[in-house]
Structures are given as structure tokens and as C-alpha cells.
Design brief:
Radius of gyration: 16 Å
Number of helices: 3
CATH architecture: 3-Layer(aba) Sandwich
Order of helices and strands: EHEHEEHEE
CATH superfamily: Vaccinia Virus protein VP39
Number of strands: 6
Helix content: 10-25%
CATH topology: Rossmann fold
Number of domains: 1
Strand order of the largest sheet: 1-2-6-5
């Protein structure tokens, strides 16, 4: 079985519907509002073949993260190496957040593994 990766904008994709077996969403949802996450998952559902699976990898909210002065969700300033600065939304997730997301978007949370600062979640649409 061949494996290949595509990188592109899921909202303006030239990809065939229901043609993909899996998708990886890495370090993306932590910068999206609930409405944007829901739109992302609706678009993803159109691309995945029946039985297709998807994986999330992103930052987790944990005691290690909570011990650093920051909010679980909020706007933060990020400075690039060249000195440019951007205000971005940053969210940290817990399993309960994913349970809620799964209920809103009709997907199964097949596994959820959280480490100190990252989580991995394997999912499939109902």
C-alpha cells in the first residue's frame, strides 16, 4: 500500500471527495475557534473515505503547562526570529475538550494519549 502526503488548504482543495483514507492535523486546532474547528471537520468529513481515520497532535493543558504563566485559551503575541510579531489565538486542550468536540462533530475519539505538553488523538467519523 502506498502512502503519500498532501499539503494544502482544506477549504479550497482540488482533491476528490471521499478519496482519502486518513489525515493528520498537527498543531493546527490550537489556533482555531470552535466555529473554525467545526468548519475544518466538516470539510475533512467530505474528503475521507468511509471508515477513514484522522489524527490530531497538538498542545495539551496539563499541570506542567498550567505552571507557566499563561491562559488555557487566549490571544498571545508570538515573536519570530526576524523580530516580526503576531497576535494569535492559542488554546490548550484536555480530553474533555475533545469529548465535546467529538459530540459536536459526530466523530469517535478512538484513543487519546496525553503526555506532559502534547496530546495525540485518533478519530473516525460516525
Amino acid at each position: 500500500m502506498a502512502c503519500f502526503f498532501l499539503r494544502g488548504d482544506i477549504f479550497s482543495y482540488p482533491y476528490a471527495p471521499r478519496a482519502y483514507d486518513s489525515a493528520v492535523l498537527a498543531f493546527l486546532v490550537s489556533h482555531l475557534t470552535d466555529e473554525e474547528v467545526d468548519a475544518l471537520l466538516a470539510a475533512l468529513k467530505k474528503l475521507l473515505a468511509p471508515g477513514g481515520r484522522f489524527v490530531f497532535m497538538d498542545n495539551a493543558w496539563s499541570e506542567a503547562v498550567a505552571g507557566i504563566p499563561r491562559q488555557k485559551t487566549g490571544m498571545v503575541t508570538r515573536t519570530l526570529k526576524d523580530g516580526r510579531q503576531y497576535r494569535i489565538l492559542k488554546r490548550y486542550y484536555e480530553k474533555a475538550d475533545f469529548d465535546e468536540m467529538a459530540a459536536r462533530n459526530d466523530f469517535n475519539l478512538d484513543f487519546f494519549q496525553q503526555q506532559e505538553v502534547f496530546f495525540f488523538a485518533g478519530c473516525s467519523f460516525n
